[in-house]
């Protein structure tokens, strides 16, 4: 099992940008976030990449907004009120899992089970837990 924490606000995978000649590339914000994810993943992972099927759990923690009552802020901190604002969980999942390619697993198509959750927190971050799944070869 591999556990990785990426500090900072979660960033969604942006739509690709295109050059005049039609070449696609990642937007700057996505590219920078993926570099941050790779940096923390490389520090956390000491084993070679997993080659079989994997289970991946991603928990994203957004900052609690300053606006709102102290009661609402407390409910957000306790997880009673969950964020229904951007970024979308699937786009953050895509950015994080793409960046881990070749470090945690050979390719993100190896993810056969996933759980994605979004919370508020005073310390914004993304927590990732990856576990290899034993294949039943009977």
Model description:
The protein is an alpha+beta fold. It has one domain (2-132): Holliday junction resolvase RusA (60s Ribosomal Protein L30, Chain: A, 2-Layer Sandwich). It has 3 helices and 6 strands; from the N terminus they run βββαβααββ. The strands form 2 sheets. Strands 1-6-4-5 form a 4-stranded mixed beta sheet. A two-stranded antiparallel ribbon has the order 2-3. A hairpin with a 5-residue loop joins strand 2 and strand 3 (24-25). The radius of gyration is 17 Å and the shape is globular. The model has no long low-confidence stretch (mean pLDDT 92).
Concise summary:
The chain has a single domain (2-132), classed as Holliday junction resolvase RusA (60s Ribosomal Protein L30, Chain: A, 2-Layer Sandwich), CATH 3.30.1330.70.
Descriptive key words:
28% strand; 60s Ribosomal Protein L30, Chain: A; RusA-like_sf; 4-stranded mixed β-sheet; alpha+beta; RusA family crossover junction endodeoxyribonuclease; 138 residues; globular; Endonuclease_RusA-like
Write the layout of secondary structure elements.
Layout (H helix, E strand, L loop, with lengths): L1 E6 L9 E2 L5 E2 L2 H17 L9 E10 L6 H9 L10 H11 L11 E11 L3 E8 L6
Parallel strand pairs: 4-5
Antiparallel strand pairs: 1-6, 2-3, 4-6
Helix pairs in contact: 1-3
Pfam families: RusA
Protein name: RusA family crossover junction endodeoxyribonuclease
């Amino acid at each position: 099992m591999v556990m990785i924490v990426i500090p900072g606000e979660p960033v969604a995978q942006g739509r690709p940008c295109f050059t005049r000649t039609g070449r696609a590339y990642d937007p700057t914000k996505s590219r920078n976030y993926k570099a941050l994810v790779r940096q923390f993943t490389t520090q956390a992972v000491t084993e070679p990449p997993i080659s079989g099927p994997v289970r991946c759990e991603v928990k994203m923690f957004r900052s609690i907004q300053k606006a709102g009552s102290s009661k609402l802020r407390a409910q957000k901190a306790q997880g009673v009120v969950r964020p229904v604002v951007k970024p979308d969980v699937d786009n953050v999942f895509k950015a994080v899992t793409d960046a881990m390619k070749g470090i945690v697993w050979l390719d993100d198509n190896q993810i056969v089970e996933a759980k994605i959750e979004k919370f508020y927190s005073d310390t914004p971050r993304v927590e990732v837990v990856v576990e290899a799944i034993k294949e039943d070869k009977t």
